[in-house]
Amino acid sequence: MWRNDSSRKKSSSKQTLKERDVRHVRIEDVSALYEIYEFQEEIGHGSFGIVVSVVEKQTNENYAVKIVNKYSTVVHQLSKVYREIKILKTVNHPNIVYLYKVFESAKKIYMVMERCRGNLKEVFENKKPFSEKTTKKIIKQLANAVYYLHKNQIVHRDIKMENILLSKNPDNPTDLYFIKLSDFGLSVIKAGSFIQGMMHDRCGTMLYMAPEILLERTYSELCDVWSIGIILYTLLCAKYPFADRHQEELINQICSKDPDYSPIELTPDAVDLLKCILVRDA
Question: 103, 147, 186, 226: which one has the fewest Cβ atoms less than 10 Å from its Cβ?
Answer without folding.
Answer: 147
